[in-house]
């Protein structure tokens, strides 16, 4: 709690120590690594951004396109995308799936991860096994499809997120963070007569904001971009979420018999594809800076096992 | 320990944790319905599945589908390619992600750190369709940037994307490129949990930055690294269908075809769902062995096991 | 570990038992007896990116009032393999919709499962539609064991592609139109090495292509068929009665491969061709990268597609040429079949007594009312008719709702179910226009008509022949491409060895089955 307010002076601490040559070389290596990485990441991103603003009659290749002057940019792709007849509807459906999915997923994952993190729990080993088996044995599409059909979930938005509402991967990652929280805190609460639910609510959760948000983000991104389940389980045209719309756009040129007409007006297909990338990153771009605020050093007291 | 007292203790333990079972109830039911019913339906791996007869009504055919898969013409090659890609990615992408996380954590240039942290994950959202466009611009034999450079120095252009020697590297490196920042998020989150007082102690003892990373930072996030590695081993035969499916072409099939692409062509597109499920189970058995084995190793060396 | 395994298995077994009661097969909700009949239709969208008809589309009400049908629409995914996955998943759960579009390959798998109903008795219930849509070729397209299991509606127009060459490049280099494969090679070399665009850089190539493969145009696929046509081995199958069989087994195939290999080795085919996907290829000719290609009429000549080329090369001109003649006098643009789009009826729908309603719906679609409503929308809102009675997007109160504008495209999503490539459609689809920069008059319809006069190889029905299993298909494609890239060296010996291996892997069997099927169904010419 303290660390939040106290701005560390040095990199980590208030203790002032003269940096050695090794420290300098370390800093140099870190900075060079990050800068090289920045370039490596920025190039494809920039190329995608410029591609999304490319006018229809532009004919240079992707490399030349990266140096297209901003005053020659065209926003036709974004206009076509946002003005698409189905866009508002699809966006709304996606938001519903996102919110419903993240809430459900966290409500299911947090208690499970917590229970699995209790070392003294009898049968813990088998419980862990129980959740790892379905993770390792992926029986594929049809067995799940049969289940969703039989549960009557076809044409329900919940069909998109329910089958993935507990991801074993996310759950076990969360478990390992919960395990990192010093045992003394939990034990002292238990000795004070707290039930496990209270321990979870009062001890664990306040210390785990960052990881819960991170896992929530992972869920959110996967639901937001889930194309496959939406394609399988949603027949009603009015329920189609954004990934279906985007996929239809992305694949459009591959399928159209009537290549002469396009719903895009004067936006080139490649630009639309590029612009649609940024649609899929929306929740991340909005949420991540917010979460980063919780990524302050020392906030997750003790992933460190003492 | 005597059996009787063991049972007693168990009962006591269960009583002590009874509120746990309240927390466990809903996720448990969820697992039964959404994870175990599909596994039950997975019996079609041993059946000649007929849609009209349903899962229970279809006739048993034993290990026929498994035999079809294992005896298929390209089986050995598929297995080799799959393992090559998944281990390749594990060996390249994962350490890179960890290094990136540590670099972001350790950098004392706040602006650089912030920019990298905000941008690094974005390539994750570039679909492979888009990535292919970028790779083509870089690597195309006719006018790719890299080949333009090679030609400038008088070399012969290389058909990176359709060359069996180059293709595996393209797959592994492009995966690292795209996913490194995304995978790093979880390690950054773990790093944020390190107790700063540990560093102070290290400083006082005169440790330099390299030593600090080696003796404090890395060990601190070891539990998370282990979990990630163990979980990746469990799905070791998933080598990244979407990526391969987008990048491969006929000339490189011998090094590009993986189990999942084979299943896609053979199983899904030809209504052989029993076969597809059987391959899923096959992959699961291998994954389970790896997980159990490595979990043992972890335990032996005093790590934090998966179970 | 042993104990762990035992417990694992016990757990799985236990949980499976627990879950047993929760699991039951088949939840087909029975249609209510009274009120309108619900018909679920999974259609292939005409313009995939434009979104489905809105919930308040007038068509729904008309169909309800006239036919007492409650039409429930589902747009299939835009991508063929996604469509296959969706349809097959629904099939596996015995949950197919009443009426759905399906590819023939998939239909082949559904028929033995008993999931689709024969439609032979439907034709006489829909006289108008049958006259326009279903001839004998169409009926036999989806025929299995003597019964037709799907309504094969006219799809793409046949022979709608042509071999195109840059006339301006020929003129600049003082060359004439190549007539033989040797002349073609010479032109390709000149296009590659003699700087036809005069920019002083070596950035042009002779031939442009990408791998576009399907059942009847196996590797290297459609874009290179004119090369293989010069040796009489275009297409997967030879469909002549005298020489029926897989083309790959014919001796001439080796010669065609040698020519392609020569093109690749000399660098006169765009070296990117193996890496290109469709969009890259189409972008490449607009960038002036190559001077000879096989392209589709609308992809080449329709306004939006030609515009970038026109702007960048106002003096550029593509002309449609005859396919080059090979050493033995063969020449062909490629094989042609009749393109169909199959709509199948699920066995479930027939069981629920919906067959007549489906027939009524389809017949209504073929009536004038349905034809114009589904094809162009509402007259005066989405289209007007010109003097010749052809729907045009002019003189509309709100041009944004025109059938060709984004606002109006949603109401014509079902047009593939009513179109049969009639003249009205073609005129409406391919209007004449003046190009923006060079002020040329262009029409994709004129282009189409010229393309259709060129020499093609009749191969109707070759797309219905048996398909190889996935491993054999891979062996075929991988092997051929490795001969071209040089991973295998293309000598007679090597080739024969490879062919032998292909045969023993099931290639011979595939060949024999195909020939037998073709004979049985009278597909040979």
Automatic annotation (TrEMBL), chain A:
<keyword id="KW-1133">Transmembrane helix</keyword>
<dbReference type="InterPro" id="IPR000515">
    <property type="entry name" value="MetI-like"/>
</dbReference>
<dbReference type="InterPro" id="IPR035906">
    <property type="entry name" value="MetI-like_sf"/>
</dbReference>
<feature type="transmembrane region" description="Helical">
    <location>
        <begin position="160"/>
        <end position="178"/>
    </location>
</feature>
<dbReference type="GO" id="GO:0005886">
    <property type="term" value="C:plasma membrane"/>
</dbReference>
<feature type="transmembrane region" description="Helical">
    <location>
        <begin position="97"/>
        <end position="117"/>
    </location>
</feature>
<feature type="transmembrane region" description="Helical">
    <location>
        <begin position="129"/>
        <end position="148"/>
    </location>
</feature>
<feature type="transmembrane region" description="Helical">
    <location>
        <begin position="199"/>
        <end position="224"/>
    </location>
</feature>
<feature type="domain" description="ABC transmembrane type-1">
    <location>
        <begin position="91"/>
        <end position="290"/>
    </location>
</feature>
<dbReference type="GO" id="GO:0055085">
    <property type="term" value="P:transmembrane transport"/>
</dbReference>
<feature type="transmembrane region" description="Helical">
    <location>
        <begin position="269"/>
        <end position="291"/>
    </location>
</feature>
<keyword id="KW-1003">Cell membrane</keyword>
<keyword id="KW-0812">Transmembrane</keyword>
<keyword id="KW-0472">Membrane</keyword>
<keyword id="KW-0813">Transport</keyword>
<dbReference type="Pfam" id="PF00528">
    <property type="entry name" value="BPD_transp_1"/>
</dbReference>
<protein>
    <submittedName>
        <fullName>L-arabinose transport system permease protein AraQ</fullName>
    </submittedName>
</protein>
<feature type="transmembrane region" description="Helical">
    <location>
        <begin position="28"/>
        <end position="49"/>
    </location>
</feature>
From TrEMBL, chain B:
<dbReference type="GO" id="GO:0005886">
    <property type="term" value="C:plasma membrane"/>
</dbReference>
<feature type="transmembrane region" description="Helical">
    <location>
        <begin position="118"/>
        <end position="140"/>
    </location>
</feature>
<keyword id="KW-1003">Cell membrane</keyword>
<feature type="transmembrane region" description="Helical">
    <location>
        <begin position="20"/>
        <end position="40"/>
    </location>
</feature>
<keyword id="KW-0813">Transport</keyword>
<keyword id="KW-0812">Transmembrane</keyword>
<dbReference type="InterPro" id="IPR000515">
    <property type="entry name" value="MetI-like"/>
</dbReference>
<feature type="domain" description="ABC transmembrane type-1">
    <location>
        <begin position="79"/>
        <end position="294"/>
    </location>
</feature>
<feature type="transmembrane region" description="Helical">
    <location>
        <begin position="83"/>
        <end position="106"/>
    </location>
</feature>
<protein>
    <submittedName>
        <fullName>Putative multiple-sugar transport system permease YteP</fullName>
    </submittedName>
</protein>
<dbReference type="Pfam" id="PF00528">
    <property type="entry name" value="BPD_transp_1"/>
</dbReference>
<feature type="transmembrane region" description="Helical">
    <location>
        <begin position="271"/>
        <end position="292"/>
    </location>
</feature>
<dbReference type="InterPro" id="IPR035906">
    <property type="entry name" value="MetI-like_sf"/>
</dbReference>
<feature type="transmembrane region" description="Helical">
    <location>
        <begin position="224"/>
        <end position="245"/>
    </location>
</feature>
<keyword id="KW-0762">Sugar transport</keyword>
<dbReference type="GO" id="GO:0055085">
    <property type="term" value="P:transmembrane transport"/>
</dbReference>
<keyword id="KW-1133">Transmembrane helix</keyword>
<keyword id="KW-0472">Membrane</keyword>
<feature type="transmembrane region" description="Helical">
    <location>
        <begin position="182"/>
        <end position="203"/>
    </location>
</feature>
<dbReference type="InterPro" id="IPR050809">
    <property type="entry name" value="UgpAE/MalFG_permease"/>
</dbReference>
């Amino acid at each position: 709690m303290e660390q939040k307010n106290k701005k560390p002076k040095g990199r980590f601490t208030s203790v002032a120590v003269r940096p050695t040559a090794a420290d300098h070389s370390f800093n140099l290596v870190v900075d060079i690594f990050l800068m090289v990485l920045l370039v490596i990441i920025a190039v494809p991103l920039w190329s995608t951004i410029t591609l999304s603003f490319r006018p229809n009659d532009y004919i240079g290749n992707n490399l030349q396109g990266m140096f297209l002057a901003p005053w020659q940019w065209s926003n036709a792709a974004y206009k076509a995308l946002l003005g698409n007849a189905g866009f508002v509807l699809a966006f709304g459906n996606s938001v519903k799936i996102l919110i419903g999915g993240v809430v459900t997923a966290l409500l299911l994952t947090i208690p499970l991860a917590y229970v699995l993190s209790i070392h003294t729990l009898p049968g813990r080993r088998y419980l862990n096994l129980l959740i790892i088996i379905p993770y390792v044995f992926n029986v594929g599409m049809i067995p799940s499809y049969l289940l969703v059909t039989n549960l009557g979930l076809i044409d329900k938005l919940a069909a998109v997120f329910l089958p993935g509402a507990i991801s074993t991967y996310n759950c076990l990652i969360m478990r390992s963070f919960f395990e990192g929280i010093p045992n003394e805190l939990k034990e002292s609460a238990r000795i004070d007569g707290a039930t496990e639910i209270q321990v979870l609510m009062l001890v664990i959760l306040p210390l785990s904001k960052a990881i819960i948000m991170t896992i929530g983000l992972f869920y959110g991104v996967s639901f937001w971009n889930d194309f496959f389940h939406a394609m399988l389980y949603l027949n009603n045209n009015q329920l189609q979420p954004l990934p279906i719309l985007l996929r239809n756009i992305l694949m459009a040129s591959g399928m159209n018999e009537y290549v002469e007409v396009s719903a895009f007006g004067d936006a080139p297909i490649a630009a639309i594809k590029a612009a649609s990338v940024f649609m899929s990153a929306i929740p991340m771009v909005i949420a991540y800076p917010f979460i980063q605020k919780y990524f302050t050093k020392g906030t997750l007291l003790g992933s460190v096992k003492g | 320990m005597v059996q009787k007292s063991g049972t007693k203790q168990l009962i006591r333990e269960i009583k002590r944790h009874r509120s746990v079972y309240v927390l466990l109830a809903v996720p448990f039911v969820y697992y039964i319905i959404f994870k175990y019913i599909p596994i039950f339906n997975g019996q079609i791996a041993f059946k000649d599945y007929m849609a009209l007869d349903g899962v229970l009504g279809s006739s048993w055919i034993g290990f026929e589908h498994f035999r079809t898969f294992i005896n298929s013409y390209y089986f050995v090659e598929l297995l080799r390619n799959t393992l090559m890609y998944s281990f390749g990615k594990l060996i390249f992408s994962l350490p890179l992600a960890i290094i990136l996380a540590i670099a972001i954590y350790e950098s004392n240039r706040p602006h650089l750190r912030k920019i990298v942290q905000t941008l690094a994950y974005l390539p994750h959202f570039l679909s492979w369709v888009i990535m292919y466009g970028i790779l083509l611009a870089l690597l195309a034999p006719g006018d790719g940037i890299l080949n333009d450079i090679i030609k400038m120095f008088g070399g012969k252009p290389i058909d990176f994307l359709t060359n069996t020697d180059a293709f595996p590297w393209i797959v592994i490196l492009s995966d690292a490129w795209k996913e490194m920042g995304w995978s790093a998020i979880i390690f950054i989150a773990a790093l944020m949990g390190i107790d700063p007082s540990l560093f102070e102690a290290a400083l006082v003892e005169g440790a330099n930055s390299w030593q600090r990373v080696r003796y404090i930072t890395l060990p601190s996030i070891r539990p998370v690294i282990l979990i990630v590695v163990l979980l990746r081993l469990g799905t070791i035969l998933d080598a990244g269908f979407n990526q391969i499916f987008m990048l491969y072409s006929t000339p490189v099939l011998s090094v590009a075809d993986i189990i999942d692409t084979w299943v896609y062509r053979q199983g899904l597109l030809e209504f052989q769902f029993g076969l597809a499920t059987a391959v899923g189970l096959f992959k699961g058995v291998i994954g389970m062995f790896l997980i159990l084995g490595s979990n043992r190793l972890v335990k032996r060396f005093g790590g934090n096991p998966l179970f | 570990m042993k104990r762990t395994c035992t417990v694992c298995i016990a757990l799985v077994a236990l949980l499976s038992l627990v879950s047993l009661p929760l699991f039951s097969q088949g939840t087909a909700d029975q249609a209510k007896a009274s009120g309108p009949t619900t018909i679920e239709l999974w259609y292939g969208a005409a313009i995939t990116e434009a979104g489905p008809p809105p919930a308040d589309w007038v068509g729904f009400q008309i169909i309800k009032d006239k036919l007492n049908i409650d039409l429930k629409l589902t747009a299939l995914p835009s991508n063929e393999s996604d469509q296959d996955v969706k349809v097959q998943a629904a099939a596996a759960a015995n949950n197919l919709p009443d009426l759905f579009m399906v590819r023939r390959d998939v239909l082949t798998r559904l028929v033995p499962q008993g999931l689709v109903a024969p439609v032979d008795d439907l034709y006489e219930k829909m006289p108008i539609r049958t006259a326009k849509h279903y001839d004998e070729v169409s009926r036999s397209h989806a025929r299995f064991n003597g019964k037709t299991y799907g309504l094969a509606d006219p799809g793409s127009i046949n022979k709608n592609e042509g071999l195109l060459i840059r006339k301006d490049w020929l003129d600049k280099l003082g060359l004439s139109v190549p007539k033989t494969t040797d002349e073609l090679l010479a032109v390709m070399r000149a296009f590659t090495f003699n700087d036809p665009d005069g920019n002083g850089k070596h950035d042009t190539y002779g031939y442009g292509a990408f791998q576009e493969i399907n059942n009847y145009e196996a590797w290297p696929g459609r874009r290179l068929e004119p090369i293989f046509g010069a040796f009489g081995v275009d297409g997967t199958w030879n469909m002549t009665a005298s020489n029926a069989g897989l083309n790959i087994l014919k001796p001439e195939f080796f010669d065609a491969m040698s020519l392609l290999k020569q093109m690749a080795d000399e660098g006169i085919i765009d070296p990117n061709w193996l890496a290109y996907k469709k969009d890259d290829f189409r972008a490449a000719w607009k960038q002036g990268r190559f001077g000879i290609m096989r392209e589709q009429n609308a992809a080449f000549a329709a306004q939006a597609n030609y515009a970038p080329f026109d702007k960048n090369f106002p003096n550029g001109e593509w002309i449609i040429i005859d396919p080059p003649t090979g050493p033995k006098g063969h020449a062909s643009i490629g094989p042609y079949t009749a393109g169909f789009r199959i709509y199948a009826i699920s066995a479930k729908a027939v069981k629920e007594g919906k067959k007549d309603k489906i027939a009524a719906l389809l017949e209504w679609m073929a009536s004038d009312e349905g034809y114009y409503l589904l094809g162009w929308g509402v007259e005066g809102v989405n289209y007007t008719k010109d003097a010749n009675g052809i729907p045009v997007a002019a003189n509309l109160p709100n041009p944004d709702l025109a059938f060709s504008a984004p606002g109006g495209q949603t109401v014509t999503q079902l047009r593939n179910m009513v179109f049969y490539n009639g003249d009205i459609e073609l005129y409406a689809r391919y209007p004449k226009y003046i190009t923006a920069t060079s002020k040329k008059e262009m029409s994709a319809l004129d282009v189409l008509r010229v393309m259709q006069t060129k020499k093609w190889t009749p191969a109707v029905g070759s797309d219905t022949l048996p398909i190889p299993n996935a491993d054999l298909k891979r062996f075929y494609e991988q092997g051929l491409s490795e001969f071209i890239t040089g991973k295998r060296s293309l000598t007679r010996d090597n080739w024969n060895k490879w062919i032998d291996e292909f045969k023993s892997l099931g290639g011979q069997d595939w060949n024999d089955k195909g020939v037998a099927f073709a004979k049985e169904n009278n597909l040979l010419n």
